[in-house]
Structure formats: C-alpha cells, structure tokens
Amino acid sequence: MPTSAPQHSQETGYVRDQAQNKATEEVGELVDFLRLIDKLPQEYQSDFYRVLNRLTDSFAQRQQILGAIRESLGQINLDLKYLIFDLEATKRERDEYQRQLEFFTQSR
Fold it and tell me: What is the pLDDT of residues 84-98, one digit of tens each?
C-alpha cells in the first residue's frame, strides 16, 4: 500500500490539468453555441435559451454532486487508512499480550 507523495501529487496535478483543459474546451463550445443561437430568428432563440439554461443548470448540479462524491471518497479513503493502522496496532498489542500470557503460564 505504500505510495510516494510526489507521485500522487503529480498524478493529481495531471488530472486537474486535464479537467481544466476540458472545462476550457467546453466553455469555448458553449460560447460558440450561444453565437449560433444569436443567429437564429428571434422566435426560436427563447426556446433554445431555455433548453440551454436547463442544460447548464443540470451540468452545474452534476458537478456539485460529483464534487461531493469525490470529497466523500477521499474521506472514506482516509478513514480506511486509519482503520488499517488501528487494526495493525491492535494485532501488535494482541501478539504482545499473547507472548506475556505464554511467559507467565510457562513460568508457573
């Protein structure tokens, strides 16, 4: 389970950069789409803007949910590491008590 912190940090930076690039591309596509909507006849624009607003609201909500899920997974991962640490410490304590018990039962 040992992983080096710099590797994790580099991996996280790479993923973050990919996400930023993707977001930049999506914003550019959104701006292009808005320009296309502006070129439509007036009677169609409001329908497209309503659909676009629903899409962007849905996207923002999904991003919030995804962020909450990532945060929860991070917390679960941390909790699991603490549990594993506690389990290993408990096993060491058990082994030590077992050795002490064997020593005392043999010395009697």
Answer: 999 999 999 999 999
